[in-house]
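Quick one, tokens below. Sequence please?
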């Protein structure tokens, strides 16, 4: 589970499409495009059909043109498109996809694990994205990150993405899924202090419902909500918005 090159690009494969969402792009009626392929193997990942090559292979693939047609038909009704994964920045055609969506007048929100700051920079500089949500998987220490994402990570790339996003001038949020067995409530403080000051930081509690990469995590008792609240209270002033969701 280690040693993957985070910059190995994959041919764009659309592994899912959700026609409508009210909750995934703040303030915008949106749809979601799921791109297959990921360079991380987070033990708690529940999008295994978009991450594990053996599952991607057997998962239905969608045609980009059909999605573009759908967006053309919904112009003036839908406002935004969320591009998520897997890890969408690994897809060689992501810029082209963003261009196609932008040409139709939509705003784009990108969900990323932050491992690919070079592509992130290009997308920002070319004004192809309007909102970024970056997962901060663990405190910014190589060993802690490796435990949370299942592979070796160059922690400098993660730090680079954080700075890039904060200085991009576009809207953004950072977020962490807290997983019992991987994180403690104190990790919220370590993470918050390393990304602060920033606009938004959200913490979500991991609740195992679907198939995940490491099924042993299913038996772990979640960290009590009150403990998360207490930890968050200590860092809430570092952000414009900071909450559990
Ligand atoms: S949770 Fe981890 S493994 Fe799953 S898609 Fe996100 S970054 Fe990839």
């Amino acid at each position: 589970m280690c040693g993957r090159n985070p910059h190995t690009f994959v041919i764009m494969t659309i592994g899912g499409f959700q026609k409508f969402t009210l909750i995934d792009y703040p303030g915008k009626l949106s749809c979601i495009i799921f791109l297959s392929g990921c360079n991380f193997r987070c033990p708690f990942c529940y999008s295994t059909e978009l991450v594990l090559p053996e599952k991607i292979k057997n998962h239905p693939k969608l045609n980009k043109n059909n999605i573009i047609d759908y967006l053309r038909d919904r112009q003036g009704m839908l406002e935004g498109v969320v591009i998520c994964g897997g890890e969408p920045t690994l897809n060689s055609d992501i810029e082209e996809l963003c261009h196609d969506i932008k040409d139709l007048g939509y705003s784009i929100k990108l969900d990323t694990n932050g491992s690919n700051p070079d592509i992130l920079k290009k997308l920002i500089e070319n004004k192809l994205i309007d909102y970024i949500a970056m997962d901060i998987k663990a405190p910014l220490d190589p060993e802690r990150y490796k435990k949370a994402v299942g592979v070796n990570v160059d922690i400098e790339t993660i730090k680079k993405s954080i700075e890039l996003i904060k200085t991009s001038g576009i809207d953004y949020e950072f977020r962490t899924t807290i997983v019992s067995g991987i994180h403690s409530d104190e990790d919220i403080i370590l993470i918050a202090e390393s990304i602060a000051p920033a606009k938004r930081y959200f913490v979500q509690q991991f609740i195992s419902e679907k198939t995940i990469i490491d099924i042993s995590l299913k038996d772990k008792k979640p960290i009590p909500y009150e403990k998360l609240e207490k930890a968050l209270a200590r860092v809430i002033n570092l952000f414009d918005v900071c909450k559990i969701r």
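Strands lie at 14-21, 30-35, 80-84, 107-112, 131-135, 171-178, 198-205, 239-244. Residues 223 and 232 are 13 Å apart (CA to CA).
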